[in-house]
Write a structure and sequence with these properties.
One of its GO terms (biological process) is DNA transposition. Strand 2 and strand 3 form a beta hairpin. It is built from 13 helices and 5 strands. The longest helix is centred in the N-terminal third of the chain and has 20 residues. Helix 9 crosses helix 10 and helix 9 crosses helix 13. 49% of the residues lie in helices and 10% in strands. The chain has 2 domains: 176 residues, Transposase IS200-like (Alpha-Beta Plaits, 2-Layer Sandwich); 90 residues, Chromosomal Replication Initiator Protein Dnaa, Chain: A. By secondary structure, it is α+β, with helices and mostly antiparallel strands. 33% of the residues are buried. The chain is globular, with a radius of gyration of 21 Å. A 5-stranded mixed β-sheet has the order 2-3-1-4-5, sandwiched between helices.
Length: 309
């Protein structure tokens, strides 16, 4: 399977997560957290990254950021590399500090920015580290409540612009403290896009399907409109000849991720709702990532489809 495609363009919003390798702690004391915040500051100064929200946990961090220059990879390489170098030198250690590449979800800001900021600020509460989000010193929540606590490199105006005042934002965050609400990130598309269907389709058409020759995408993964659900299903049925149920799931997965077909078109063929297509694709992808034999068969389907184009 190809590594996840990184979609970058000017003024894009992202929810970014970085986790410690093998779930090890990446922040061990106050000095570590202050150093990481200084990395956020320098990313703002050097690469014009706009930091809208952050939360430093113990073995991971959350960021909501915007890239006016369309340079997410550059921004995150700077942050993670600078911090990892500091951490390793300080502890006289070698090896990877973070678990692979950072995880980034492209976000339709107008629809999800406020929800994601709340999700980020409530992380310490949901982890039973504090009773109230304002009790946690290592998140951007303080900057939202009091401008005196807001560093120059933290931007709160965009999200606060959706509320009449800071007290209203505090109430908005507190409203969900006692409720068990699924993370909004669970609604992200396979490509890591969180937004309304129209937004997702526009991003795919402009930034994915046009990149057919990108090294991250084999030919069949370029979103070729010549790939019909009938063709995908028939090729999957040949590869999974003794597993018709798996063939159907594989066909839905490939149609959703690589065909360029809309959710409506895929759903019409497989007799699924739009959310049914998305959920089926997500579940199958989790299996593909876990099961090597299944992954090899899916790649065989993709190769045969590429030859058929």
């Amino acid at each position: 399977m190809a590594r996840p495609l990184r979609i970058e363009y000017p003024d894009a919003f992202y929810h970014v997560t970085g986790r410690g390798n093998e779930r090890h702690d990446i922040f061990r004391n106050v000095g570590d957290r202050r150093k990481f915040l200084s990395c956020l500051q320098s990313s703002n100064e050097r690469y014009l990254a706009v930091i809208h929200a952050y939360c430093l946990m113990t073995n991971h961090y959350h960021l909501l950021l915007q890239t006016p220059l369309g340079n997410l990879s550059q921004v995150m390489h700077h942050i993670n590399q600078a911090y990892a170098n500091y951490f390793n030198v300080k502890r006289k250690r070698v090896g990877h500090l973070f678990q692979g590449r950072f995880q980034a979800v492209l976000v339709e800001a107008d629809s999800y920015a406020t929800e994601l900021s709340r999700y980020i600020h409530l992380n310490p509460v949901r982890a039973d580290m504090v009773a109230l989000p304002e009790d946690y010193p290592w998140s951007s929540f303080h900057g939202y409540l009091d401008p005196a606590d807001c560093p120059a490199w933290l931007t709160t105006s965009f999200i606060l612009g959706y509320f009449c005042d800071r007290a209203a934002y505090r109430k908005f965050v507190h409203e969900m403290m006692e409720k068990k609400v699924a993370s909004p990130l669970g609604n992200a598309d396979h490509f890591g896009i969180l937004g309304r269907e129209k937004f997702v389709q526009e991003i795919l058409e402009e930034h994915v399907w046009e990149r057919k020759m990108d090294r991250d995408l084999p030919t069949v993964r370029g979103g070729d409109r010549n790939l019909s659900p009938e063709l995908i299903h028939s090729v999957a049925a040949e590869v999974f000849s003794s597993e018709p149920g798996t063939a159907r799931k594989a066909a839905i997965f490939i149609s959703h991720c690589y065909s360029g077909l809309s959710l409506k078109e895929i759903g019409a063929y497989f007799e699924l709702s739009l959310s049914g297509v998305t959920q089926s694709s997500k579940r199958f992808r989790m299996r593909v990532e876990r099961e090597m034999i299944l992954r090899e068969k899916v790649e065989l389907v993709e190769r045969r489809l590429a030859l058929a184009l």
